[in-house]
């Protein structure tokens, strides 16, 4: 707890604004409902506090809540760690292997990526999580993963309390047609009866909390297994995607090459220790990373530079034929476009007829790309990128520039 208090300082009012977000409100609401109902059900209707088992059960419920909230707020306020503004590699010649961030006015350190939500380059960025209203990265990856582990475990305990409470309270009141089944529930019965009867409101609240607990167990549990899968390979979600695109690029251009992920230490235990430490603080400064013996210090960043060049080659130019207001789910673009709006926090961009867009990816009814701006307009302005409906644009004839392969690579015809 001391580590959290020493790191989290509310000197910046912007940090307090993190509390005003829909993801945070929903997450804390679920934790509050499940924890409160589990404690109330245990004390009033299931396991009395004056018994040894009831006391241990109540202490465990409090313990789950404290640990969950500690790791949750740790992940949110400690944050992922940001690349210092104006950062440059120690050896200036290494800058050719790195991408330059115009927003942060700095080079992107190995394993770092720029987050549009945080408006900074994040160290070892995994993803921007709306539930903590912050990025998951180098400094808070362990706390975030522990939260993903503890939340399902706490919900499983709470779900057990909810089920047993409803069963013990309704056993002598309702007939399920199980007259031939003999179950001894004498140990669970209250003597004397509880001061507050288990009424319809209590049943409805317990049933609702049970649904939240089971849903959280499944959803958050799946996220935990996904995170552990990439942690044991010493990767992030973004790096897994980069590796996949690297293999796709090699296959597309028929290259006699093989991409080897440089940060896999060759042992799951060694990879595990790259994230989890006894102190809770990851080793290193978040800028330099240990790599495999057969890899270059900038193997991943070199691949990113190649991927970016390939992305420009494969991008498609579109011309805007109808205005688009930039709304998330536009009603005037058709029913299919409305219901297939991308489920992501990535922005939508406003379009005006006659503008040109360079699209880099898309789904059936939506495209993602950036506006093509004049050099005079582009100076000092960050790129305008986001999603937009396909039926607002039309494909331009292929230019000679976009039909060429990157230098040194052969296109697969």
From TrEMBL:
Entry GO MF terms: protein-cysteine S-palmitoyltransferase activity
SUPFAM superfamilies recorded: SH3-domain
InterPro entries: Palmitoyltrfase_DHHC, PFA4/ZDH16/20/ERF2-like, SH3-like_dom_sf, SH3_domain
One Pfam assignment: SH3_2
Domain notes: The DHHC domain is required for palmitoyltransferase activity.
Domain of life: Eukaryota
Ranges annotated as spanning the membrane: 19-46, 58-83, 146-167, 195-226
Recorded family membership: Belongs to the DHHC palmitoyltransferase family.
GO cellular component: membrane
PANTHER family xref list: PALMITOYLTRANSFERASE ZDHHC16 (PTHR12246)
Record's subcellular location: Membrane
Membrane topology label: Multi-pass membrane protein
Gene name per UniProt: ZDHHC6
Keywords, alphabetical: Acyltransferase, Membrane, SH3 domain, Transferase, Transmembrane, Transmembrane helix
Name of the featured protein: Palmitoyltransferase
Primary location class: membrane
Domain named SH3: residues: 313-398
Entry EC no(s): 2.3.1.225
